[in-house]
Amino acid sequence: MNPRLEAESALRAAAPHALVATLRDVLTAAYGARAVRLFLTDYGGTVLRSCDAEESGVTSLPVSGSPEGRALGSQEPREQQVPRGDETDHHLPVTVRGDRIGILTVRLPGDRGAPEVLDELRYVADLLGREILVAERDTDLYQRARRASRLTLAAEMQWQLLPARAYCDERFALGAQLEPAYAVHGDNFDWTSDADQLLLTVTNGMGEGIEASLLTNLAVNALRNARRAGVDLADQAALADQAVHDHYRGASHVSTLMLRIERASGRAQVIDAGSPQLWRMRGKSIERVVLDAQLPLGMFEESHYVPQEFAVAPGDRLIFVSDGVYETLSPLGERYAERALARAIHATSLLPAAMVPRAMLRDVAEYRDAESLDDALVLCLDWFGDDR
């Protein structure tokens, strides 16, 4: 049987928790693989966590400085010669539509690394990524593996809301990150794309801990419910506003920034209902997109929302940041948004969208001279349009 078809058939038939073991059997039979290991990106994006630590003896690897981390960053396979032997480790990115899930490492005898074999392994790594997304509905194995420490309950609720941490297609690329990854409570993001449009939202529920997470959960699901009903952007905001107000009666509200872009033309509508900010890099120019401030969701009953319109040009990079980013103070008391934010956008201009949020949040942490951040979110959108 063709190795691709054999791997595909075996993975689809495998129990959700047995994907790696099944793939190990297939690759051993097809290519004489000596070892097959899967490392998943942790929630903070700083380490790669082993799915089979008992098998490999390795619990985690740093993203920065390791061959596996370099393969993840470059999204290209990396080879690593095994000490004291004629074997080579092939580190292959496991990525689904731009979401960098992890690294598949396959150890092969030195004479089995022909280009056609590596092409087969890349295909298998793509298959594995898609199967992991399906398997996560029925097993916690992969969710547990990517945790470097325990999530707070509030963070658990927030991460379960997310669509992914990255996405790309021929028109655009997205990347986003929440911090502190294991204790985030109020910040969140959401997106959806179809043949005609991209819709995304950045939300920040007031308060802390479980209460902030519950509030954000209500708002995000109200926005999704309205969006899936097919109503326009203004009505999505109004219906979500009503849902939050009906429950909290104005005692709590959700700051929200909503964006809709027509895929064919780049025409955009935006509603600024609270604190998230939008910045744009066009060529070498970096500026904040100043929007008409409207009421956060749930503050008053029957609020009315009016979208603003602007054009997104091919090559534009849009950066969305929560107040935990732009309000951050340096040890000398200077707000991050005054100068440092524009510098960070410029400094990350050559990175792909998926890697920008992690890099910017690291810069924010260094700016305030701290190892971790208060609730903070960065979302990066690269718009390719027709000119890619």
UniProtKB/TrEMBL annotation:
GO terms for molecular function: phosphatase activity. Residues 76-92 have a biased composition (Basic and acidic residues). InterPro entries: Bact_Sigma-Reg, PPM-type-like_dom_sf, PPM-type_phosphatase-like_dom. Residues 169-383 form the PPM-type phosphatase domain. The keyword Hydrolase applies. Keywords: Hydrolase. Pfam families: SpoIIE. It comes from the Bacteria. Residues 54-92 are annotated as: Disordered. This is Phosphatase. It comes from Streptomyces angustmyceticus.
